[in-house]
């Protein structure tokens, strides 16, 4: 097995979505974006790696873009404040990922090195449904939240979505002493033809056994989607600790956190991906065994200070850090 696990610092926070709302300025809700500085409102080019000059990711040949919705705290008086993010727990002697300060931890897993085909230029996909407000039992191993039981990533001792005592399919309903971690994993089978589809989902599929736990990666690919692709997963740590005082929570004690499109269940968690690795850099990693963390033979890396110099100018001018009367875009 090979598991590339590496951090990407934020490249921008903006109300743009070139996958679902290409060319729309602003898009419906706020996103946090990491990766290459080629991110823009349209991203129509097939080879994103050629439009970017830098990346916020540990692997310096990865100009892909990864994005998710932001998380907000709703105070008792009805106002909202964006929840900031933390770095990742330290593993595999990877200091880079602990210092991303608001970014995303990205995983690419190959359970069968040499038999997994890396994504191709122009490839993009979406996982999750922002309109969902009820649990999807089939996705409980692929889309979850972890309530850290103590500071410094307390409770982080099980594979993603695997510990029922601290992992939930919806947002936790109690204060989390160390913050909230969210994980979302993408399908691992491709039709071998289409780089995208109208819903950004139909060209990919889960194995015939359906979504499985992250490390087992499920069974065989269906005949309609016979090509095994890397298991891609995002991990975000939300620093909810400034809001753990329940005197700030709703008077009925319900949980006060909302994803940026107005979802306080968490069931609508979703993630977007636009592939942008340079040349065959990702395939080099997927063909090797025993690569773990943010290093792999033949793959180029960079230091965190250089990564944080990479950024994209905000297009939609909005208050990102203050208290707001409504979630950005919800008044539209």
Question: How would you describe the overall organization of this protein?
Answer:
With 332 residues, the protein is mainly beta. It has one domain. Helices cover 3% and strands 23% of the residues. The strands form 4 sheets. Strands 1, 7, 8, 10, 11, 12, 16 and 19 form an 8-stranded mixed β-sheet that branches. A 5-stranded antiparallel β-sheet has the order 2-3-4-18-9, with no helix packed on it. A 3-stranded antiparallel β-sheet has the order 6-5-17, with no helix packed on it. The longest helix is centred in the last third of the chain and has 6 residues. The mean pLDDT is 92.
Mean pLDDT: 92
Low-confidence stretches: none
**Spatial separation of the terminal alpha carbons:** 47 Å
For the CA atoms, what is the radius of gyration?
Answer: 19 Å
**Secondary structure tally: strands:** 19
> Order of helices and strands, N to C?
EEEEEEEEEEEEEEEEEEHEH
Number of helices: 2
Provide the number of structural domains: 1
State the share of residues found in helices, binned by percent.
under 10%
Q: Structural class from helices and strands?
A: mainly beta
User: Quick one: overall form?
Assistant: globular
Main sheet, how many strands, which sense, barrel?
8 strands, mixed
Domain DUF1996: 17-277
Protein name: DUF1996 domain-containing protein
Pfam family, one: DUF1996
């Amino acid at each position: 097995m090979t598991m590339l696990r590496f951090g990407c610092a934020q490249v921008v926070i903006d109300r743009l979505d070139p996958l679902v709302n290409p060319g729309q300025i602003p898009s419906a809700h706020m996103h946090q974006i990491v990766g290459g500085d080629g991110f823009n409102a349209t991203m129509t080019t097939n080879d994103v790696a050629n439009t970017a000059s830098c990346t916020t990711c540990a692997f310096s040949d990865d100009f892909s873009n990864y994005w998710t919705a932001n998380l907000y705290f709703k105070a008792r008086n009805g106002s909202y404040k964006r929840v900031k993010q933390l770095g990742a727990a330290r593993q595999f002697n990877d200091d880079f990922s602990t210092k991303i300060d608001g970014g995303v931890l990205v995983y690419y897993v190959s359970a069968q090195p040499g038999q997994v085909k890396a994504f191709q230029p122009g490839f993009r996909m979406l996982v999750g449904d922002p309109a969902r407000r009820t649990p999807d039992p089939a996705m409980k191993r692929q889309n979850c939240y972890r309530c850290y039981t103590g500071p410094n990533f307390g409770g982080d001792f099980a594979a993603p979505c695997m510990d029922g005592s601290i992992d939930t399919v919806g947002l936790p309903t109690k204060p989390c002493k160390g913050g909230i971690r969210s994980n979302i994993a993408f399908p691992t089978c491709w039709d071998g033809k289409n780089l995208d589809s109208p819903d950004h989902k139909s060209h990919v599929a889960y194995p015939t056994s359906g979504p499985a736990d992250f490390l087992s990666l499920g069974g065989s690919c269906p005949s309609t989607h016979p090509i095994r692709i890397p298991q891609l997963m995002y991990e975000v740590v939300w620093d909810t600790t400034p809001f753990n005082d329940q005197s700030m929570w709703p008077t009925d004690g319900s949980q006060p956190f909302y994803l940026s499109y107005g979802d306080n269940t968490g069931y609508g968690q979703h993630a977007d991906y636009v592939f942008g690795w340079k040349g065959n850099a990702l395939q080099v990693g997927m063909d090797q065994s025993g690569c773990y963390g943010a290093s792999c033979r033949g793959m180029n890396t960079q230091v965190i200070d250089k990564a944080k110099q990479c950024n994209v100018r905000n297009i939609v001018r909005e208050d990102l850090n203050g208290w707001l009367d409504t979630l950005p875009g919800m008044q539209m």
